[in-house]
Amino acid sequence: MSNGARSSDRMGTEPVHTLLLKMSFPLMISMFVLAMYNVVDSIFVSRINENALAAVSLCFPFQNLNVAFGIGTAAGMSALLSRYLGARRYSDAEKVAHNGFILALINYSLFFVIGCLAHTIIRLQTHDAQIIDYGTVYLQLTQWLSILPMIQSMFERLLQGTGKTFPILLMQITGSIVNLIMDPILIFGLFGFPALGVKGAAIATVFGQFTGCIMGIIFNKTLNKELGLSLSKVRPHLRTMIDIYKIGIPIIVLQSVGAIMNFCINRILIGFSSTAVATFGVYFKLQSFVFMPIFGMNNGSVPIIAYNYGAGEKQRLEQAMRLGVRYGIAIMSIGTLIFWLIPEELMALFDASPEMTAMGVVALHIMSLNFPFAGYCIMRGASFQALGRSVYSMNISLVRQLVVIIPCAFLLSKIGGVNMVWWAFPIAEVAGTAMSINYYRTIKREIIEKLGNEEKVSEENVKQEE
After folding, report:
1. What pLDDT, on the 0 to 100 scale, is given for residue 195?
2. pLDDT tens, 315-346?
3. pLDDT in tens, 121-174
4. 3-state SS string for the chain
5. Whole-angstrom Cα distance, residue 425 to residue 284?
6. Do residues 9 and 303 make contact, with C-beta atoms less than 8 angstroms apart?
7. Residues in the chain with pLDDT < 70?
8. Residue 454 half-sphere exposure, CB side, CA atoms within 13 Å?
9. pLDDT, tens digit, for every residue of 104-118?
10. Cβ distance 378 to 330 under 8 Å?
């Protein structure tokens, strides 16, 4: 593990601003490319008909749930791995790497069951026979083969935990290109292939994920030799799995409540029309282009903060947190500006009807107001995760996406119709920002300031001994 020590030491020595950009930029591009999977599917599927787009939108919460378990488990593994590397606990870091794969297999069993229940799940959301048929096929295939993106997430976070982020970018770009090429071929039946419609979109997605998974195996075997990855070393270690999930479960919950919220909002909107559901689906696909890069910066900053926390470097830790928040707010503000300036053009990507375009312009204007607030919350969440307080992010997400947004959306739908529903999102984000500010004050007082005091006490002890 000595080579791993040298490759990860830069997180404690390289200038923080440079390090944050180097660690985050490939992950930001990677997450941006990841967002393309669903968006590309939806753009091509919308050319079939509006019901096909609505069906994929109804499947989106369950794909998000899949991503939640993959990202949460992998993020817990990455943060713990970086913390152990910072503290020079190399054998523990190796256990983290191998137990992450056991947890991925455990998670997969849940989504295999969801695939088996796909028909029932879609019927709970709509009575339209065509939407049910489209949605069942798409959900079955993406969930039955969901082990691929889960394993890919594990390999990505192993590379991230040792500071090797560029290969992650290559994995994501290659998988996305494969998906982009296969989508029109399988959906519309080009080059002699049968026209599979929505089923073709699901198969194209799986092709892309399979490509990324294979590349992850190759990169880790060739570039992360210091971790000693081997199937023979994959043995359950309960303490390690518990420690991974202490960090990972709040992140899983944080991501999962988004899927639950999406499901509930779809149930509210279907009471107006399938067009409202499709519009909301388009918004979520578009906003993922804004949010995913910030999640990349979040993931890039977690190992930096965790490493310097483990190494007792208070100044570097605080600088990484401060820069992350500034970038988060700035990037998300640009997203709001884009949604206000070109909403019609964004809706046109999905072959929107005049009715859907009119509804979408209002929705994009209103819901994008929450972006700068979300940027602050997401980057503060990186600090909570890295310092072992992921439960704070979980609490904020529960309040924003369940306690506030769903009741607000329901009440507003009764008061003023579908366009009032969109206001629930900025309202919930303001509430989340207030909680983030309060929680940050708590960790500053209970963790960061004490870290500085511990350093002073150590210096005084040394002087006394001399």
Report:
1. 92
2. 888 888 999 999 999 999 999 999 999 999 99
3. 898 888 888 989 999 999 999 899 888 888 888 888 778 767 777 888 788 888
4. CHHHHHHHCHHHHCCHHHHHHHHHHHHHHHHHHHHHHHHHHHHHHCCCCHHHHHHHHHHHHHHHHHHHHHHHHHHHHHHHHHHHHHCCCHHHHHHHHHHHHHHHHHHHHHHHHHHHCHHHHHHCCCCCHHHHHHHHHHHHHHHHCCHHHHHHHHHHHHHHHCCCCHHHHHHHHHHHHHHHHHHHHHHHCCCCCCCCCHHHHHHHHHHHHHHHHHHHHHHHHHHCHHHCCCHHHCCCCHHHHHHHHHHHHHHHHHHHHHHHHHHHHHHHHCCCCHHHHHHHHHHHHHHHHHHHHHHHHHHHHHHHHHHHHHCCCHHHHHHHHHHHHHHHHHHHHHHHHHHHHCHHHHHHCCCCCHHHHHHHHHHHHHHHHHHHHHHHHHHHHHHHHHCCCHHHHHHHHHHHHHHHHHHHHHHHHHHHCHHHHCCHHHHHHHHHHHHHHHHHHHHHHHHHHHHHHHHHHHHHHHHHHC
5. 12
6. no
7. 1-12, 30, 34, 37-38, 86, 161, 226-233, 254, 452-466
8. 12
9. 888 888 899 999 999
10. no
